[in-house]
Protein 1
Amino acid sequence: MERETLQQTKKFFSRLGGIYFCGTLITFAIQFVVFKILHNVVPQMMKNHDFVMLASSLAMYLLAMPMLAFMIQRMPREVLPKHKMSVGKWITAFFMCYTLVYVTNLVGIFTTGILGLLKGEAVRNPIQDIAAGLSPLNTFFLMVVCAPIVEEYMFRKLLIDRTARYGEKTAMLLSGLMFALFHGNLNQFVYAFALGVFFGFIYVKTGKLIYTIALHAAVNFMGSIPLILLLNTEILNEINNLEGNTTEMMNLFVQHSSELLLFLLYSIGVFVIVIVGIVFWALHFKKIKCAPGTVTIPKGQRFKTVILNVGMILYSLFWCVQIVRQILETQ
């Protein structure tokens, strides 16, 4: 392959960022139109949180994302070498992946907590809002089935296939950054970035999207379904209504002992996964190596070339505005 000039490389990333920016605008436009139509056709259904989330997500996954994919596929790409990942290695990756999410989520919670103190009001967490209104079945369909398939295709395969020639590290970091920004809120940004980079590593080393889709689905399941089930149980509301009455609380625990046992086992399971994951990170961290690409961007020029261009700036700025709006939004 002929060596590209920095200017050509910068134009390539600007075009890539511009396409994702256009895809973002298309997504918002389609969702707006769909909601307008639904408000006129079935206004009563717009009061149903499950229906609204389902309509919003399907409008994005079935209409907007295919348009974005069509635009990206016109850009040159490289076919990554395919390597099989054993079941044992996938399980190890899951432990590392979940631990990464757990730890970086704590960083996100701490950050939003500090901002909440400065703001004088807790930063609104859209994930909790979604979890509070969705049924377990819809949560499973949207977060465990749809999101992993579509997001891994859009932010791993399409993106990394077109950027891996500039080096695996560049492709992974860009994949993580654009994936994190796409979530549009600070609560998810930190762990989505870490998760996106890790998924990017798995993809560049295997060339097979099925492994990252499975990891993404497993992480989303662990982080959503148990929470939805907990929020849907009567015991949570009853505990909140007891106002510190010890006797009634003990009676409540006895009456709902099976539910409490399940959540206790879940909590223990999460603790075990995190501890084992930390051990795996300690054992494997030094083994994580990123191969250079066929096109080298000189040190000191990478950020300016990859990020500081019109397309990437537009994409980043749009989502940064959404994140700031989420931080400033009142409860």
Protein 2
Amino acid sequence: MILNDATRLFIETHIHDNIRQLALKKIPADVDKSLAFSQIEARQILSKKVPSWAANPDLLFPKHLSLEQCSSELTAKYKAKIVKTHCGAPPQPDNDDSHSTFIDLTGGLGIDSYFLSENFRNAYYVENQKELCELAENNFRVLGRKINVLNDDAKSFLDEIPCDPCQKSSWIFADPARRDAFNRKMVSLRDCSPDVVELQEKMLEVAEHILIKTSPMLDISLICSELKNIKEIHVVSVKNECKEILVLLERGFAGSIKIVCVNLRQDVISGQDEFCCFDDDEKNAVPVFADTIRKYLYEPNSSLMKAGVFRLVSQSFKIDKLHVNSHLYTSDNLIPDFPGRVFEVIAFSNFDKKVKKELLKDVKRASVVTRNFPLTANDLRKNLNLQESDDTFVFGTTMRDDKKVIILCEKHV
């Protein structure tokens, strides 16, 4: 895949154009139309996901599917932070033993390979699609990162590696594909490709640490039953949307699993909410249940919801839970560092025929949310005859006595 000058200029000129409309126009003969369109589309997709790569005119990108499945720049940097935390100082040129080797078994677009490899002296990108390997070689060269690119599949590559138990600083990263040949979503790691459940023992012979990226749709308890030597599980959200679950394995580890729930907002250092606990903490937590709605209402972010630490949230922040299955909380005193959304309660009432005439008599627009409620948010909005708005919020939920309530509130700034 080579960009001639005319194609490069065409891409730069039309980088923000609508592809469908552009296809109807006459394209100069010296422009590689197919290549130009694919690169424009790719850069538009990546402009928010991986902005530093999208802005580089010398990088080349593959078909649409690989772009959809690749990590974002923000989540890739978070993975690099995990590795750096365990590795310590960055590799030194005069130290042959420093953080010896990093292997990405599922190279793909190379986003994770690029950001993770900065922590290591030697790095390998392994990918079974030849086209992606060719693009990765070009992109790593343009970005000035020395990474060995190998066109191979994960299992074959691992079978060929001599196991060296002295490689205490080696890491393997894997992001198994989560759809099969018929584009069906997988529900178990065993259904993904490569099968990291089958390969985990071999991977831990090769490297002391394994970092596995899994779908946010996978059940964490199932992940724990399928994988061994789990040291940490990171549930990663971006702007309150759960994006991925990262599983850190360590050779020989047999202790309690650390659970890290993180919500990234703008960067991996300061722009994030983080809540840490261990796998037994939720089981042993003793929540307090609310007898009424108090001044503040709390909704945990999506990472905490995915991790299922509902009892622990009540205990840790000393806030009252509304119901065992209503994952909302309340308190009289503000918890300023709560990892989620915080609302100031205006009023509340039972969900009955009077709610529209009394509680919501002056409310025409509101953002509607339901938690443990018989109606969906859309159905409740229709029932209450409310238009969408981000200024006022209406929650439909259930209290500990199983009474259905409507809570009118506004977001705390």
Protein 3
Amino acid sequence: MLVSMGSFISVFAQKQAEIKFETIEKNLGTFPESKPVQTCEFAFTNVGNAPLVINQAVASCGCTVPSYTKEPIAPGKTGTIKVTYNGKGKFPGHFKKTITVRTNGKTEMTRLYILGVMEEGK
């Protein structure tokens, strides 16, 4: 009985989601202060063998807003996290922002980065 229970637990524990991003950094390039809102997307795949759930995606400041699907991503399927940066009212120049993504996957936390340069308006 004990051996079969251990086998059951071992098989159950092997079913796990796993998120894999195409890239963890996006460069928004150089853009004018007159167009401060920029967006990008981070594509990912569930390379695990259980449904993947994104529990949260939190940015390092209020000028950066991530959005993502709340539905589970089946094994082998893909999804995206869309990130909007709004530099309105920010000082022109180089920036780098962090988005922390938490999932139910084997890797519970991943950090994504966006960076760029907002040029001062003339």
